[in-house]
Give the backbone structure.
Amino acid sequence: MTEISPPDSSPTGSSMLNTDFVPLGERALQRILDHVVAVGDEAETTYLEVKSELVMSAKATVAKIAKFLLGTANRRPREASQHFQGYAVLVIGAEKNSALGVPRGTEAHELEDRLTPYLGPQFPAFEFGRIAVSSEREVLFVIGQPPQEGQTIFPCHKDYQGDNRRDSLYDGAIYVRGTSNTRTARSGEVLALVERAREEGTLPIELMVQLVGQVHRVIGVQDVIERVRAYREEQFAKVATPNDKSGIVSTPFPLHTGIFGIEKPLSTEGRKRALTAWQGRKDEHLAEGREHLLGVGLSGAGIRVVSRDRFVAKPHLTITLHDCELIEHLDLDEADLDKVVEPVLKKQPPYWSGMSPSPVSFTSRGYPVDWSNRDKDAEIVLTPDSFRPNAPWTSEQDDYVIVMRDSEADSVEVSWVLTEEGNNTVTTGQFQLLNNHCIDSLEMFKSIFTVGVQH
């Protein structure tokens, strides 16, 4: 069971919940759950509803959630803003003195798909939270967005006939939140919603977009790879016959013992053909080697976004770093000299090996970060479920590294474009990143692939 805090005897304790906070995040939801467990159904208001237990797969449950969301969406903004900064919360799986929860496994996207026929395609996105109360059960929270001036009226889009008439829904009906329940709107409430729609629209979107990490200036990458190529070719040429087993040779910089491996013996003619083929793939090798060296040698970067005082539903944010390149970020333990400069003769995997030793990466379904290189610019696209008011949203820093194409430049221009689902307004912005630090590729190479010289 989840740990329930004891009732607070202060005026803002169990009987009078202080609602001057945004009901998002585990700590905020725990405060609400503690309040519900302390007072039970008495917690229900225009902005908070409680269901002790629902079968989440049942049509009746979907209808009850839809009715709650319709009612909270049809509130007047000034009144709604007095509690939870305009949000409204449905708690499922709790009652007075108990938080038994419901069986775990409800997915937000599946619930949203089942709600859409009732809510309609233009309905604002909702938030979904959960608090585990055991290994098999959890309390669920469905969180409606703050209503906004200029929003249309949200009618029900589908009928549902429940066993209890109070649970039924009617196509075209307008539902509003009463003191502790959701009901059909009265004429005065409909007129108030008409006035809401006539008011000036929602707050404009104001974003703060920042880079987390570094944009790198790197010099000498091709020179380092060329030197290693020259060493590869030199050592290959020294092997005059298949029986030549000499192994101690000098290098341009000290390297880990054995990192070049052992080439498969070939005839003189075969060795010439192998060398010619290897030399012919030079441009390909340089490009692949550069990506691998920079991928393991440089730190990754991410994006942090803050929406000022406004909820942004299903955003699509495109960030362009001009005259930059994105390269896949790799962990240091993935460093492989053979991927920086391919040997003249590749090492052959054991005959029983049916898989490549190369690491395979997977992107999870719904991952909200995509990136690519377009012409000479780097493009990052973010598509999270939402940007919450004044709550930083930050992407991971292990997706890519950012490299300036001009190593002599000391700054990068960044521009961004944001669109929001259901909103025709396009929001744009730009900023500049300064970088006075230049990375020497040779030193980076040594730090990854070399060890101290022993005399």
